[in-house]
Amino acid sequence: MAPIERLEEVTKKSLKNNKAKKAAVIALFYPNKDHHTHLALILRKTYKGVHSAQVGFPGGKQEPTDISAAHTALRETQEEIGVPQEDITVLKKLTKIYIPPSNFFVQPFIGICKKTPQFILQKSEVEALIEVKLSDFLKDSIFCTRKLSTSYATDIEVPAYILNKHVVWGATAMMLCEVRELLKQLNNH
After folding, report:
1. What is the Cα Rg of the chain in Å?
2. 3.90.79.10, 3.50.50.60, 3.30.559.10, 3.90.190.20: which CATH number matches 4-134?
3. Which one-letter DSSP state was computed for residue 189?
4. What DSSP character marks residue 46?
5. Which pLDDT tens digit goes with each residue over 70-121?
6. The predicted structure's pLDDT at residue 16
7. What residue spans define the domains of the chain?
8. What whole-number distance in Å separates Cα of residue 40 and Cα of residue 7?
9. Is 19 exposed, middle or buried (0-12, 13-18, 19+ CB in 10 A)?
């Protein structure tokens, strides 16, 4: 899911920059009130920053008091969308990814909530909750490419997903690609 320009940039910056900040996010699956499995994504608020108004996973920056990356993801998810940490079971650690524009190494996880969450959005950071049906998430038709200008290139074609009418690209799309592949492997067994 990474355009070649990004791979070159990531390799160059991550090798030279060992002072990256750490963050963790979670791909949270849960049953809605009709017992259909959904994935929770968030639309970030518009602000002066590199991830303004982008779709992402709940999660955030690691704090000194966090005991692990998983703890960071759970704590931040509770802060951003109101799902209590104790209601989430972390199932799998995914591939860590470096995000050059913000200088973060992000550790993603897959987690499940066995009951329908009562979402409470952190209004200062989250514009909206995007609830994606698992059946929609697994459709091949959600894949597309878009021409975008980014912090590292202008008017480049980037691979993306269309989820609930939102274009999801960059690091979030890369993480979603890994989640989709894992789910498809499970489905084939």
Report:
1. 16
2. 3.90.79.10
3. -
4. P
5. 999 999 999 999 999 999 999 999 999 988 878 889 999 999 999 999 999 9
6. 57
7. 4-134
8. 27
9. exposed
